[in-house]
Amino acid sequence: MTKRLFHSLCLSFCVLLTFGCAGQERKTENYTFKEGSYSGTGKWYMGREIAHVMGAGGMPWLDRPERESEERVSLLLKNLDLQKTDVVADIGAGSGYHVFRMAPKVRDGKVFAVDLQVEMLEELRERKRKGNFTNVEVIQGTEESVNLPPGSVDKILMVDVYHEFSYPVEMLASMYAALKPGGKIYLIEYRKEDPKVPIKELHKMSEAQAIAEYEANGFTYETNISNLPWQHCLVFVRE
Predict the structure, then answer these.
(1) From its phi and psi, is residue 72 left (phi > 0), alpha (psi between -120 and 50) or beta?
(2) Are 72 and 137 a contacting pair, CB within 8 Å?
C-alpha cells in the first residue's frame, strides 16, 4: 500500500466517523445533543433547541432608536412595578438598555447588570461611569451562574436572552438561589405563537414551553402580562 493511498483511506475513515456520529443522539441528565437547525446549537432542553448567543456585534440592534415603538419598553418597565428600594437583576444585560432605565426608578435600591461577554461588560461599566449611576453594579456571570449573593434580589428581568442559555437548568437554580423568598422573575421572550413577530423562530418561545421549563425547576407561574406588541411578559415566583 502506497503512502498516498494510506493517507487517503485514513482521511476517508475520519470523514465517515465524523459524519456518522453527527446524526447520532446523545443524552445527559438534563440535555439532549442531536442535529438541529442551521442557526441552532444542536443542544436541546425539554424539546427546545437552544439558540446561539448574540455577540457584542449586536449592540447597535439592542440600542436601536425604534426599539421603544416596536417593543414598548416603557410599558414593560411599568409591568415590573419597581419600588424605590427594590434590588433588581438584569440577566443578560447586554449594553444596558434596560439597566439604565431601571436605575432611576430604584434610587434607594440597586440594579445588578449581569452579563458574561467581556465587550458587554466594558460597555456597561462605561455607561455607568458616564451617567454616574451609583446604584448599578456590573457583574460577570458564567454560562452556569449569575454570580449573585444568595437571597439578595427582589426581581429578575430577562429580555430575549433565556432561550440562549447553554445551561438553563443550572442558570435557573442560580437565579432561584439569588432571589429572596417571594421574589419574581419577569421573563420577556418573543411570542412563538405569533408568526407576524419578525424574529427567527429559534429566538422565540411559546408560553407553554416557558411555563413547563420554569415549573420543572421549582418556580410557580403567576401570570402573563400580555400587553406588549411582540413579547410575552411571563411572571414566575420563587416561593
Answers:
(1) left
(2) no
Q: How far is CA 37 from the centre of its chain?
A: 19
| Beta carbons of 100 and 133 less than 8 angstroms apart | yes
Q: What does the domain layout of the chain look like in residue ranges? A: 3-45, 54-237
Which cell numbers in the block locate residue 1?
A: 500500500
Q: Can you list the alpha helix ranges (DSSP code H) found in the chain?
A: 3-22, 59-62, 67-71, 73-79, 99-102, 118-131, 168-178, 207-215
Pairing of strands 153-159, 40-45: unpaired
**Tens-place pLDDT, residues 113-126:** 999 999 999 999 99
Total residues found in the chain within this entry: 239
Alpha-carbon span 176 to 205, nearest angstrom: 21
pLDDT per residue as tens digits for the range 58-110 = 889 899 999 999 999 999 999 999 999 999 999 999 999 999 999 999 999 99
User: Under CATH, which number does the domain 54-237 receive?
Assistant: 3.40.50.150
Cα–Cα distance for residue pair 82/155, rounded to 1 Å: 9
At residue 12, the 3 state secondary structure works out as helix
DSSP single-letter state for residue 8: H
Tally of CB atoms within 10 A around 139: 18
